[in-house]
Amino acid sequence: MAWAYLAVAVVFEIVFALGTNATKGFTRLWPSVLTLTAAAGGIYTLSLALRTLDVGVGYTIWTGLGSIGTVVFGALIFKERITLPKLVSFAAIIAGAVTLKLASGF
């Protein structure tokens, strides 16, 4: 169940990051409400996942996948460019998260 909570937390993290851009400095009401709700939901579901997962593993995966998702959806929604250095960074984040998980055991 911890991995399901972590997956939901990652989705909230991506919505939070993308929503922050849409708030225009928290001057737009509904994007601001969505962003704050996503932030709270992400922290809450992450805390549920961390009941079982090591904090180093859970937090790293949460932030790593959240970062990757934010860049990918930022490209789709806001037309931001995905460059080769970004792709290399994705690979490094994924490799680091997998290595961290392997080092801590399943």
TrEMBL record:
Its main location: membrane. Pfam families: Multi_Drug_Res (PF00893). The keyword Coiled coil does not apply. It is a multi-pass membrane protein. The chain crosses the membrane at residues 33-50, 57-78, 84-103. It is found in: Cell membrane. It comes from the Bacteria. InterPro entries: EmrE-like, Small_drug/metabolite_transptr, Small_multidrug_res. Keywords: Cell membrane, Membrane, Transmembrane, Transmembrane helix, Transport. Belongs to the drug/metabolite transporter (DMT) superfamily. Small multidrug resistance (SMR) (TC 2.A.7.1) family. This is DMT family transporter. The lineage of its organism: Bacteria, Bacillati, Actinomycetota, Actinomycetes, Kitasatosporales.
